[in-house]
Amino acid sequence: MKKMLQEFKEFISRGNVLDLAVGVIVGGAFSSIVTSLVNNILTPIIGLLLGGVNFVGLSINFRNTTIYYGAFIQSIIDFLIVAACIFVIVKLVNKLSKLGHKKEEEKEAEAPKDENTVLLEEIRDLLKKQNSSKKAK
């Protein structure tokens, strides 16, 4: 039992688990923002573009049962809009992170070389020159 508790403690203290927990919490908060965007802004605009169609009210009566297929259509539309919004946001975040990495690489490339590196490069260049002149003879 003690060993299992120790393993659980190690598992929980790993960075990946904590990162995942933070991701889930932020994802939940982000989901409410996207849902609000869909329900309060995008869906009414789509309704206007489609001539004021309210899909939720569409239904079929079959014997004693009402099938609300409009609500299903609305859910599909909501899902597609949410997926598109998330796709665009992920693309933007990836693009911004790539820009950040490029700037870091440029800074690393511009870093001045230390004295030993400069001397070694000069020796290398002299040896190349010497070897090429011997081959020419």
Descriptive notes:
- 81% of the residues lie in helices and 4% in strands.
- With 137 residues, the chain is mainly alpha-helical.
- It folds into two domains: 1-50; 54-131.
- A two-stranded antiparallel ribbon has the order 1-2.
- The protein has helices at residues 2-13, 15-49, 69-110, 115-136; strands spanning 60-62, 65-67.
- Helix 2 crosses helix 3.
- The longest helix is centred in the middle third of the chain and has 42 residues, at 69-110.
- The radius of gyration is 31 Å and the shape is elongated.
- The N and C termini lie far apart (79 Å).
- The mean pLDDT is 80.
At a glance:
This protein is 81% helix and 4% strand. By secondary structure, it is mostly helical. It has two domains: 1-50; 54-131.
List its traits:
mainly alpha, 137 residues, two-stranded antiparallel sheet, 2 domains, 4 helices, 2 strands
**Quantity of strands, as a count:** 2
SSE sequence, one letter per element: HHEEHH
Which class of secondary structure composition applies to the elements?
Answer: mainly alpha
Q: Return the average pLDDT rounded to an integer.
A: 80
| Total domain units | 2
**Basic shape:** elongated
Which blocks of ≥5 consecutive residues have pLDDT under 50? Answer: none
Radius of gyration: 31 Å
Number of helices: 4
Provide the β-strand percentage band: under 5%
Describe the largest sheet.
Answer: 2 strands, antiparallel
Read across the widest sheet, the strand sequence of neighbours is: 1-2
Counting copies of identical and different chains, the oligomeric state is single chain
What proportion of the residues is helical, as a percent range? over 70%
Report how far apart the termini are.
Answer: 79 Å
